[in-house]
Specification:
homodimer, 300 residues, alpha/beta, Nucleotidyltransferase, domain 5, 2 domains, six-stranded mixed β-sheet, five-stranded mixed β-sheet, 9 helices, 37% helix
C-alpha cells in the first residue's frame, strides 16, 4: 500500500511518498508551522506534494505534528489517554486538499498526570506506535523529552520534560552558562549526573540550587570551565531521569527513541540506575507508526 | 563615626556618605561593574565620591558587591564559611584611591554545600550581618535568592537558587512562558505552589516536567492563560522553598530580606509550611552591616 505523509513540525516541513514502510520519494523545506499564516498550509502542501497526489490518486494522505495545533492548518483536538492505534485512527481530522480529496491530521494526545495537571504531545504518539513496544517504558528524547508508559499496546500515560530547551536557555541567555568554555570536557556529564543525585528523595536540595552551584564551582575555581556545559547537560538529564523513574517505576529496560549522540547519553545515565536500554531510530519509528495508522484507518 | 561606601553591583553604582547608620548624602549611576573595563573603576569612584573624600579626610571607605569579583576593580578572594564580622573584616582587600588613601573591598563568601560542590555570594554577607540575627535562617530574596544559616553570629553555610533569573528566562526566551497573557490573575501563584508539592520527597516528578506541564495546561485549555505567569512564579518559589527547608531544616520562623512585593510572596508561601516570617528592608540591613564591618575594622 502506498501513502503520502507530511511530517509537519514547528520549523520543518517533510513530505514522504511511502510504500508499506519504504520511503520512495521525499521533500523537505523550512516551511514549518511557525513560518506560516492561517490559509497558507494547503498551498504549501500542494506545491511540495502535488505531483504525488496526481501520480497516486488513491493513496491516503496523513499529516502529523504541529500542523494539527492551534497555530497549524486545522486544530486537531487532543485525544485522551489511554490511546492506541484504534483510538488515534478514530480521531483523525480531515482537511480538504483538492478535487474533493482529503488528507487526515493525526491528533495529538492529552493526559492528566495528576488531578488538575496536564501534559500533551503532537507527533510522538506516532513514533511510539512505530516502536512495536506493547508494554514498557519509552523515552522519546528530543528538545522536550517524553517518557511514555505503554500498556497492552496503548499509550497509558506520559510525562514531558523541558530538558533540551532548558539546556539551550542556560547556554544562550543565562549567567549560569556564561562561564562555560570550549573545548568541552565530556567528563562533566558524569559530574552533572552525580550532582543530580543530590536532588533525589526527601533531602532533595532543589534543581534551581544545583544550577547556581554549577556556576559557583567555576567562578570559585573549583571546576574547570570546560566541564561546565557537559555538567549542565548531565545535571538536567539526571534530574529528568530521576523524576521519570519516580513517576513510572524502575523497569529493567527502557526503549530510547533518539539520534545516536543523544541516545548514548541516556544509555549511559540509565546504566547508572542498573537499567538497560534499547535504542530505536526516530525516523524509522515514525514511518512504521504512520503505516500502522494508515492500515488501521483503512480497516476502520 | 562617618564613613564612605560604594555599593557596586553588576548594573548599578551607589555611593553613600554615612554617619553611624544614617545616610547623609548619596549618589547613584548606571556605571555597574558589567559596564566598565579594567582600570576605569578608580576614576568612576573619584568622580562620584571625590567630594566626600575631601570633606572627610579621615573617613574609612568600604566597597561592597561585584566590585570585588574577577570582573571588578580588584578581585577580593572569597572568605570561607563559617564567617562573621571578624573574619570578614580580617579579609578586606585594599585598593588605592588618591594621595596614599585606601579603600577596602569586602570579600564575598564561599561555602561547600556538599563535598566537591560550591556556592558563593558577594554583597549578601553584608546585608546578613546587618539583620542582627545571630542564630536562625535568613532568606535574601533577590534575583538569585540565598538561604543563609546563622550560628553564633556567624554565617554557617548558605545555598543560592536561580529562581528570579529562571522566571525571567521562562518569560522572555522560552516557549513555556509564551502562552502567558495579561492581565495576570494572581491566584496562579497558589496553584504553582500546589504544583511544587508534586516535586517533594521520594515521588518527586521533577521541576522540568512541572514547567512543561504548566504550558500544557494552557494549550490544552485546562488553565486560563492569565494564570500562567503567577503560576510559574509560584512553582519556582515553591520548589526553592522545598529545597531550602530540606537543606536547612524547618525552623519556626525565617527572616526575609526583600522589597515588600516580593517579601509578601515568601511570607505567604512559608505560611503554607506553618513557618512565620519577619521581613527586613535590604537597604537598611546593608547600611547596618557596613557600619558593623567598619566598627570591626577600626577595632581590628
Amino acid at each position: 500500500m502506498r501513502f503520502i505523509v507530511a511530517d509537519w513540525g514547528t520549523t520543518r516541513f517533510r513530505g514522504y511518498l511511502i510504500e508499506n514502510e519504504t520511503v520512495l520519494d521525499q521533500v523537505s523545506s523550512n516551511e514549518g508551522v511557525s513560518a506560516l499564516q492561517k490559509g497558507q498550509h494547503r498551498d504549501v502542501f500542494l506545491r511540495q506534494c502535488g505531483r504525488w497526489l496526481e501520480a497516486e490518486p488513491k493513496a491516503p494522505v496523513l499529516l502529523v505534528g504541529m500542523v494539527g495545533s492551534r497555530e497549524g492548518w486545522v486544530e486537531a483536538p487532543y485525544a485522551s489517554c489511554p490511546a492506541g492505534p484504534a483510538e488515534i485512527a478514530g480521531a483523525l481530522v480531515p482537511v480538504d486538499l483538492e478535487n474533493g480529496r482529503q488528507g487526515h491530521i493525526i491528533p495529538g494526545l492529552f493526559c492528566e498526570p495528576a488531578p488538575g495537571a496536564a501534559d500533551v504531545m503532537r507527533g510522538e504518539e506516532t513514533l511510539v506506535l512505530g516502536t512495536g513496544v506493547e508494554d514498557g517504558l519509552i523515552c522519546s528524547a528530543g528538545t522536550h523529552p517524553k517518557w511514555i508508559l505503554m500498556r497492552g499496546g496503548r499509550i497509558e500515560r506520559f510525562a514531558t520534560y523541558m530538558t533540551g530547551e532548558m539546556y539551550a536557555l542556560l547556554r544562550e541567555h543565562s549567567m549560569i552558562g556564561r562561564p562555560a568554555s570550549e573545548p568541552q570536557d565530556p567528563k562533566g556529564f558524569d559530574l552533572g549526573l552525580d550532582a543530580a543525585e543530590r536532588n533525589q528523595g526527601d533531602n532533595g536540595v532543589g534543581l534551581l540550587h544545583l544550577l547556581f552551584s554549577a556556576r559557583a564551582s567555576v567562578v570559585s575555581r573549583r571546576m574547570d570551565s570546560g566541564l561546565l556545559a557537559p555538567y549542565l547537560s548531565g545535571l538536567l538529564t539526571g534530574d529528568e531521569i530521576n523524576g521519570a523513574l519516580s513517576q513510572f517505576g524502575r523497569p529493567s529496560s527502557v526503549t530510547i527513541l533518539a539520534e545516536p549522540g543523544r541516545a548514548d547519553l541516556y544509555v549511559h545515565a540509565l546504566e547508572r540506575h542498573g537499567i538497560k536500554s534499547e535504542v530505536k531510530v526516530p525516523q524509522e519509528a515514525l514511518i512504521a507508526g504512520l503505516a500502522r495508522i494508515v492500515r488501521q484507518h483503512a480497516v476502520g
